[in-house]
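Annual report, structural modelling task.

Input specification for the NAI complex:
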Amino acid sequence: MTSEPVRYERHGAVACITIDNPPVNAASAAVRAGLVDAMARFAADADARAAVLTGAGRGFVAGADITEFGKPPQPPTLPEVVAAIDGQTKPVVCVLHGATLGGGLEIALGAHRRIALAGATLGLPEVSLGILPGAGGTQRLPRLAGLEAAIEIITSARPIDAARARALGIVDAVVAGDDPRTEGLAAAQALMTEGPPPPRVRDLPAPAVDEAALAPLRARIAAAHPGQIAQVTAFDAVVEGAALPFADALAHERALFVKLMDSPQRAALVHAFLAERRAARLPELDGVAPRAMDRLGVVGGGTMGAGIAAACLLAGLDVTLIERDTDAARAAADRVDTIVQGSVARGKLRAGRHAEIMATAFRTATDYAALRDADLVIEAVFEDLDAKRAVFSELDRACRPGAVLATNTSYLDIDAIADATARPADVLGLHFFSPAHVMRLLEVVIPARTAPDVAATGLALARRLRKVAVRAGAAEGFIGNRILQATRASADRLVLAGATPAQVDAALQGFGFAMGPYAVLDLAGIEIGQAARRRLGVTAVGDWADALVDRGALGRKAGRGYYLHDGTRPPPPNPEAEALIAEARARAGVTARTIPDDEIVARVMAAMVNEAARVVGAGVARRPLDVDVVLVHGYGFPRWRGGPMHWADAQGLDRIAAQITGWAAEDPAFWRPAPLLADLAARGARFADLDDG
Ligand code: 3HC
Ligand code: NAI
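The model returned the following structure:
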C-alpha cells in the first residue's frame, strides 16, 4: 500500500501541501495530478489564506519523472501544474531543501515566495538529459536571475547552492532551520500579515535582449558541446522567448521541448542516466552487506597508485601506501600531495583540508606490517604477473583475516594473482582509469571464487568514491580494454589501407569521441599497447607501432609519437610515423586509397560493437548496458549517443551485421560477426532486449 503522493492538510489558516514520492519526489503523473487537485482544493478552501508546498524526505522535487520519457504523455502536464500554482490569488510559499531540480525548480518558480534550507541545491539540468526546461523555466528564471546567469544555469546543467540562489534572487531567503514545514509556516504567516501577495515571477519584466550581442555566447555554447542540440536549443528558448509575450514564450518553449523530447539524443542520454544507476545494482548482491573499508592500503604509488590513494583520501578514507624503498615512498607521497593540493585549486577541497588530510589520514611505509589493520588493500605495482603475485603473497602474510585484497591490473589473470594467497575468496579486481581521481569509471572485476561480500565491498567503495561501478568478469582485458583492443585493430587496418592516424582521430572526434585512438596512444604511451599485444601474441596490423617504440617515439612524454608534441596546437602529425606507415604499406603490397570519414566511423564502430557483443555473449559484461557505461565513462564515448550498444540498436543490428559480413571478403579473420550480434540481427531483436534480463 503506497501513501498518497501529494497530501493536503490545514494548519490554522495555512494549507500544507506535501509531495511524497520516494526516493527523490520525481514529478510523476500521480504527483502532477495530486498537485493540481491540491491547488484546486486550496483555491476552494475558504479557511486557507496561504499555502506551503514542501517535499517529504531527502529533497523538494528532483524534476520530471525520467522513467516516463518516451512514453505517451499523461495529463496533467508540468506546465499545467505550474499554471495551477501561479494562478492562485492567495499566496503560495515553496520551501526548498535537498535536490530541487528541473521541473522541481520550475514548480517553485510558480510560487509567490521561495525559501531555501541551507543545504538545498537548485538547478535546471534538463540539457544533460537532452531536453530543456519545459515548464516555464526558460522564461521565469531569467526574470529573477537575469539573462546571463539563467543562460549559464540552463546550458551548463550545473546545480547551484542555496547561497548562490539567494544572491541571484532565485530564492527570497535562506533559512537556518532544518524542517521545511516549520520554515514554510513562518513564511506564510509573514505573507498573510504583509498584505497583497508579492508579484508572480511571470509578471516581472522580461530581461532586455540584444540577440546580436549574444551571438558570440551562443557560438561558445555550441562549440563547448559539439554534436549536441539541447544546449543551443535551450539558449534559443531563453533568448527568443524573452522578446515574446509571456504566454507565447511558454508555447515556444514547449514546442522546442517537445522537439528535443522526440530526439535520439534525448533517448541516448536518458539511457545513459538509467544505465549508470542500473549497472551498479547487482541482483545477486541484494541484501549482502559490504565489509568494512575505512582503512585503505595501496601498494605501489606510481601514476595509478597515487591517483587511487588521492581519490580515497578525498573521499575521507584513511590511506597507507606501500612502496619499494624510502625514495620511492617519498616520490609517491609527493605525487599524492600534488593531486590532493590540486583539488583545492579546482575548488573541490577547502584550503585548510589539504594539509590536514595529508597529516592525519595519509602515511607511506616500505614494510607490509603497516597494512596489519587495513580493511581493503589495492595493489597498483608494475603490470607484471610475477611482481603482482609477490605482492599478494606478502599481503597474505601481513593482512588480517577478512581484509579485502584488490588488484588494479589492466589485463592480467586475477585468478593467478589470487593463487598467490591462501584466500582467493577475498580477492577481486578494482580496475581504475587514469587519472584515477578524475575518471568516474570503476570496473569491479569479480572472479568466480570471490565471496559475495567482497564483491559488495568493491561496489560500496565505488559509491564512496562517487564513481560509476560496472561488474566485469575476470577475462583478458575485462570489458573496456578488450573492446579497446578490437577498436584499435580496426583503426590500424584503416591506416594500413590508406587513412592517416590524424584522419582516423578527426573522424572519430567528429563522431563525438573525446579523443581519437592515436591521440590516446600518444597520451598513454605507445609502448603500453605494444606490451599488451606481445603478451597476447597478437600481431599488429602494421609494424609501425613497434618501430616507433624502438625509436623512442613513445608519445607525449617523449615529445613525439603519432604526433609531434612540441607545443604547437593542435599537435601536427609526426612525419616519422607517416614514413613508417608508408613503408609498412609498401611491404604489405597495399596501395593507399582515400577513405571517407563516414567509412572510418562505420568500420571502427562496427568493430567496437562486434567485440562488445562477444564480451556480452561470454558473460564478461552481464548486459549490453554495462558495456555502454564502461565506454562512456572510461573511454570517452559520447554520452549523448548513449554508448555503443544503444547506438547500434538505433542503427539497426541487421545493418551492422550485414556490413561486417560484407567486409569479411577482404579480411575474414577480423570481420566475423559475433554470434550474439548475428543472432539478434537475424531475430530483428535489439541489445536493449537483453538489458531487462
Ligand atoms: N525521475 C525518476 N527517477 C529518478 C529521478 C527522476 N527525475 N531522479 C532520480 N531518480 C531515481 C534514480 O534513477 C535512482 O533510482 P534507483 O534507486 O532505482 O536506481 C534513485 O532515484 C536515486 O537516484 P540517485 O541514485 O541518482 O541518487 P543520488 O542521491 O545520488 O542523486 C539526484 C539524487 C541528485 C536527484 C539525482 O538522481 C539526479 O540528478 N536526478 C536527475 C535530476 C534531473 O535531471 N531532473 C530533471 C528532470 S527533467 C525535467 O524536470 C523536465 C522538466 O523541465 C519538464
Ligand atoms: P607505474 O610504473 O607508474 O607505477 C608502479 C609503481 O609501483 C612504481 O611507483 C613502483 O615503484 C611501484 N612498485 C613496483 N613494485 C613494487 C612493489 N613490489 N612494492 C611496492 N611498490 C612497487 O605504473 P602505473 O601506470 O601506475 O600502473 C600500475 C598498475 O595499474 C598496472 O597494473 C597497470 O596495468 C594498472 N593500470 C594502469 C593504468 C594507466 O593508465 N597507467 C590504467 C589502469 C590500470
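The pocket of 3-hydroxybutanoyl-coenzyme A (ligand 1) is lined by residues 23-24, 26, 62-67, 78, 99, 101-103, 106, 125-126, 129, 133-135, 137, 277 (CB under 6 Å).
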